[in-house]
Please model this.
Amino acid sequence: MFSAYAFGYAYGALAGQLIGPVIYLLHKSVETKEETKEETEYEKHRWQPPIVGIIERTLYISSLLSGYAEFIGFWIALKVAIPYFFWEKKDTRARVAYMNCIIGNGLSVLYAAVGFKCIKWLNQDPWPYAAYAAIVSVLLILATYCLFCYVKKIPKAPKSSTTTI
Model:
């Protein structure tokens, strides 16, 4: 049924964009006042993460539908391979930024998985499975909003971020 695929892909790719404000706040909580030049560079390229998110969640849903879920692990490994080396530098700020990336990836996979599951449910007997799809979809959006509210309360980083572990 075409509408099941349309809903699943739209939910995974587009509703998944709700992740953006959460990750933005997480990154802002790590920034220091001294990073004005870097912040300006980041703001110039702020359009890129939403595009990557839409593409990757579309790829995740497609890989799940085609039976190649291992692609998701490959894609995430590709994304985090380079930032992982920050762990060796013992730079606290870099570690926190890396963990923020992992949080974003986890949420992205979760939205894709719900989109995939909605496709499966909506292609079955419409009534009970449509209710499942609606309930799970709304619950994930509410959970994302709760995370956003929690992250919004995180204090900003101090003026100097040269702390190491």
About this structure: The radius of gyration is 18 Å. The chain has a mean pLDDT of 82. The chain has one domain: 2-33+47-152. DSSP finds seven helices and no strands in the chain.
